[in-house]
Amino acid sequence: MKGLPPVLITAVVLVAGFALCAVQFPNIASTRVVGNLLTDNAFLGIVATGMTFVIISGGIDLSVGSVIGFTTVFVALAIERWGMPPLVAFVAILALSAAFGAAMGAVIHVFDLPPFIVTLAGMFLARGASFLLSTQSVPITAPVYSTVSDFALRLPGGGRLTAVAIIMLTIVIGGALLLKLTRFGANVYALGGSRATASLMGVAVGRMTVKIYMLSSLLAGIAGIVFSFYTSAGYSLSAVGVELDTIAAVVIGGTLLTGGQGSVIGTFFGVLIQGMIQTYINFDGTLSSWWTKIATGVLLFAFIVLQQGLVALARRPVVKRAGAVS
Amino acid sequence: MILKALFAASATAALLLALPANAAELTIGFSQIGSESGWRAAETSVSKQEATKRKVNLKIADAQQKQENQIKAIRSFIAQNVDAIFLAPVVSTGWDSVLKEAKEAKIPVVLLDRDIDPSGKELYLTAVTSDSVHEGEVAGDWLAKTVGGKACNIVELQGTVGASVAANRKKGFDTAIAKHANLKVVRSQTGDFTRAKGKEVMESFIKAEGGGKSICAVYAHNDDMMVGAIQAMKEAGLKPGKEVLTVSIDAVPDIFKAMVAGEANATVELTPNMAGPALDAIAAFKDKGTVPPKWIQTDSKLYTATDDPQKIYDSKKGLGY
Fold first, then answer.
1. Which residues of chain B lie closer than 8 angstroms to A313, CB-CB?
2. What single-letter DSSP state applies at residue B27?
């Protein structure tokens, strides 16, 4: 039991849960539902990939939901009111959100402030700014939008692998490789283990902090663009509370909230578990949708307890641990 | 140990599996906005009742005020291959791509209570909504008929400034009383659709009109403001329902309580039964292929103190208003 990594447990929960759902509603085990899961949770998967880096490094980013909201409004206004070509609007908003993240990272490092407070300020700032731009939902009518949102690879069995799902899968895979195979990824783990040790080992802590928050905000920006494809509109109230769903997905995915451990693939499973619960509730149709929150809460609690158990296990003296095994 | 705890957690999720789907002739998915107001909660419970009456299996997904949840719900209804989808849209834009999917799957969509933007008109079968201009007209006509030929100074409590419902209810009322020279709106201010604000504004009206003796009738854009206004009139020593006529819109249970006490005269109902006409339209469409009109207007029924308000109050109070 001791050797079982948290991510494997997440995978078991996902598969077991899916099997349970499929037993009751055979329709769930179809490519259509799986395709929907990927499409509906595309923005969550993208933003959760960025959040995984932040949490592994020992931080937190509460601003991501607001950045998504701001991005949708900005993109909608840029295309519809200011007459920007969509591609230019995308580049502009990505630059803007990356700069926003870099600024938060810099403030966290330079003033040695808790990330919770800094990104909380960022959350209010970005949400407020999107209301300043527009309080109304702005429809996006650019032809690119209908092309992209209608594009889908047909899967056998009526399923659709949509463009936004493909973007999400690419980012998840890219994020997993970045974390596991690059020096940047290794530094993220080092930072989460201990800042002091990382610094002694020669990690440029300041630069890393800036880069990590920049990555998170950049991915939130991409998630915002995906969200705007999803609804073909920009709305300042969109993605309210998504930061919390994201953190839940990351933790359910086996990432340690205190940092130093975790994986992008686990986060991806965490996102799918949340999506699966919601799908189940929609299929049932008689349950209050607030059960999604309750089930997520129960899972989250179970995983935190599990993590504490694993941490305690790891900290035990070697002799004692050997005794426990025998 | 750990695995056990985990399975306990997934078993909690599995507990939710306990309810079997019952076999019915039609299965309809309803993506509801949420339960932000009493009226919305009543709409949900009336929809359930209407579905049960017609032996329709209605699956309700509460979107918690989020469009992304509504889109997810619609996609999952399509995946379940339901016979029809009801949608009460939280915003008017951004429905094209998911409604196209529904159309592709040949699942008819009916909008309830609110409309969506014009670019999507061919994407839904029909919309069941009330006409808020007409609601104002019904209120105005009742007042004109009740007052008869004598001169009447009216004070008006408007809804939230900028809300289309408020503008429409004002417009309808103004149109109705314009035909009668003896009726005149002397004061008109916003009470924000709330009880507290309605009371406050009514107090200032009473002061401005010399103790309220010159006020002959109060028109409020919703019942909640009227309940506040009735309170203000009673505190000022006026007799609402007798000396001062009242007419408002929505028909929430509390206004019937005021009617029972003889303190309110009339209300125009914004029916929470949007699902009933929608279910009938779908049944006709499925059975005989009858294509309903693009807009099904719900009744704006007038209730007065002579309509047995106690009975209506009893029938409405359990709906979650």
1. none
2. E
d(CA B268, CA B137): 10
pLDDT value at residue B23: 43
Residue from B69, B83, B97 to probe the interface with A (highest A Cβ count within 10 Å): B97
Instruction: State whether A235 and B19 contact (CB < 8 Å).
Output: no
More confident residue, B160 or B296: B296
- Terminal alpha carbon distance of chain A: 13
Contact A286 B68 (CB under 8 A): no
Q: CA dist A144 to A86, A228, B291, Å?
A: 8, 12, 33
Q: 3-class DSSP state for residue B243?
A: coil
Contacts of B97 in chain A (CB under 8 A): 146, 149-150, 230, 232
Rounded distance between C-alpha atoms, residue B86 and residue B110, angstroms: 5
Which contiguous run of DSSP H or E holds residue A79?
A: helix A64-80
Q: Where are the beta strands (DSSP E) in B14-145?
A: 26-32, 56-62, 84-87, 109-112, 126-129
Task: Return the beta strands (E) in chain B as ranges.
Answer: 26-32, 56-62, 84-87, 109-112, 126-129, 152-158, 183-190, 217-220, 245-250, 266-269, 295-297, 302-304
User: Which domains occur in chain A, in start order?
Assistant: 4-313 (1.10.3470)
Q: Give the torsion through C-alpha atoms of B6, B9, B11, B17, to 10 deg.
A: -140
Is A224 in a helix, a strand, or coil? helix
Contact present, B125 and B108 (Cβ < 8 Å):
yes
Residue A91 and residue A94: Cα distance in Å, rounded? Answer: 5
Q: In this structure, what token pair is assigned to residue B98?
A: 């998911």
- Chain A hits for B19, CB-CB cut-off 8 Å, are 284, 286-287
Which region holds residue B192: left if phi is over 0, alpha if psi is between -120 and 50, else beta?
left
If you average pLDDT over residues B289-293, what whole number do you get?
90
Distance CA(B35)–CA(B42), nearest Å, equals 9
The stretch A251-263 carries a mean pLDDT of 91
Give yes or no for a contact between B272 and B88, defined as CB atoms under 8 angstroms apart: no
Cβ-based contacts of A30 with chain B (< 8 Å)? 79
Across the interface, which of A139, A232, A298 has its CB nearest the CB of B12? A298
Give residues 1 to 30 of B whose Cβ lies within 8 Å of A.
1-3, 5-10, 12-14, 16-17, 19, 21, 29
Per-residue pLDDT of B161-182, as tens digits, reads 877 889 999 999 999 999 999 9
Q: Cβ contacts of residue A63 below 8 Å, gap of 6+?
A: A100, A101, A104, A119, A120, A122, A123, A125, A126, A217, A220, A243
Q: Alpha-carbon distance A67 to A222, whole Å?
A: 10
pTM for the full predicted model: 0.81
Smallest Cα distance from B104 to chain A, Å? 11
